[in-house]
Amino acid sequence: MAIRNIFQKFGTKLFLCLFMVTAGDWLLYGQPIGWALGLYGGLVAALLLLTQKNILQSRASKVTAFIAASLLGRLIYSPDLLTAVMYILAIITLLILSKRQQLLDAKLWSYDVGSFSSRLFTQWFLDKSCIQKLSKARGIKLNNIARYAVLPLLMALTFIYLFTQANPILASMLKKVDLTFIGSPGRWIFWVLTGFSVWALLRPRFKLSTEKSSVQFTRKIDFDLWLNKNAIIASLVVFNILFAIQNAMDVAFLWTGAALPAGMTYAKYVHAGAYPLIFTTIIAAIYVLITFGDGSAKYQSPAARVGVYLWIVQNIFLVISAMSRTVNYIEFYSLTQLRTAGLIWMGLIAAGIFLMVLRIYLRKSNTWLLNANTLLLFTTLYICCFVNFNRMIADFNVAHAREVAEGSTGTYLDLQYMRELGPEAIPALARYQSKMATPQPVLSELQANLRADLAENWRAWTWRKQLLLEEIVSSDATPIAEAIPPSVDPNSRYK
After folding, report:
1. What is the dihedral of CA 383, 384, 385, 388, to 10 degrees?
2. Which DSSP string corresponds to 40-89?
3. Which of 132-146, 181-195, 329-343 has the highest mean pLDDT?
4. pTM over 0.90
5. Cα–Cα distance, 12 to 458 (Å, whole number)
């Protein structure tokens, strides 16, 4: 208990902030991303456990801590941007739950996150008076410190200079000290941003949001000028007719294989509509929320309810068609990160529309719908943190490449994109090379880069890269390149 009280003191938090800035500079600044990012995340977690008494006070905070711990493990195993962002949100949520016993409203959670974020660059200045009081209480004056430090500092520098002249070993050691940070604006900015962020974690003095404080963000809009029961019924009739025409064309051309008009290729038809159809569905969902949301009972009628159910069913079919278009386009060309993200996004929209049906049928509030969709979104993102998409994409593209798969309707393998996928593409490229008559330089390049990253800088090491290296070494089909081929830029690195 006495040890924990030490970490609650203002002066101790100042020291911890300086320590975290120093650690961040050593582990992260100007360094390749690797397990060191997870190590720094672990230091942040330890910092919260030491300085925040109520960080694990409720069941919700313990569940959040478990989620944060799993994300931290993922950062150590193989860090990426999505996992880092999710970990930061988990840490902020822990700070929110240290002030709340429970958090059942996604809207309030988003406001709390915004409230915390607004203190990132202001908390230090708000605590300046505390620093001044601490200085006065201990009789510390900056001008006295500067005045009394001049003579010892000058003498110390003199002695160092003389010793380096007399001791070549000491001189060589001092030459290795990097003093370029003095003239490096980027490094100073990194220190300031890191210091402000860590201080906000150490001193979470942000205000919690309430329903009253969020009224200004949820001000109701009067739609009576444009909407009434008859207008809703008429609009739903028109919308259902338009959507029926679009869905009928998709059934004809996508599902039954009807002949396309002259000059229109199947690939062009498939690709043209995927994303516009998704935006169409989003607009439709917004319209339904307006006309069947909270406080809109005056617009509703039995006929309108039947029409909206039919329209929602057509929207779900439209999303399925958009997903089918994307899948077919992938078969024609290849799988990419953007197309994978698009499929996930379409799946979320389809699930969101289904939740909207439940909300209308069960007569739930918009808050219920917002909470359900937020939970669905973050659950999906959490699962995505643990999926090796780059390897999955590389395996798919090699398996469906025209020169590999007999009878494939796809294109030839895009080796440049495989290079951009990084070391995760090495196993797939090894299988690809085994079917090709000539060696593939991109495979040797990725192998050499992987080996260099693991050997040159310990901060860039990750468990995933190590396991991948062991997999390559154990495979006779994919020998590790001893050096980067002469035709490859030695400074090149995969993205």
Report:
1. 120
2. HHHHHHHHHHHH-TTTT-SHHHHHHHHHHHHHHHHHHHS--HHHHHHHHH
3. 329-343
4. no
5. 30
